[in-house]
Amino acid sequence: SRSAGVFFSGQRVRVREPGGEWRTGTVSAALPLRVRVDGWDRPYRWTTVMPVAVVGDRVKCRDTVEDAWRHGWVVCHRPTQVLVDGWAKPYAFREVIKVEVAKPA
Length: 105
Fold this sequence. Notes:
By secondary structure, the chain is mainly β. The chain contains no helices and 8 strands. Strand 1 (12-16) and strand 2 (23-30) form a beta hairpin.
């Protein structure tokens, strides 16, 4: 998803093309949005770009598109691991998406 103002140069993100695998990289330009995947020589435009969740972020996660989304907190980075609500141990999921947490009024 490409939205002006959502991404900034230097931001860590995950990218993929339809049916492709997720790759992690860094935004090299916000407009037009271009991401250089870790280990690649130059940046490219991608169909799907999502911010990388960091430790302390509230997220939804799953391993396959057939799985129901689970919610939890990112507790480790490299690899990103989520402590799902009600679980005793964190787990590294294939899809981890940051979600907004309502702030108290």
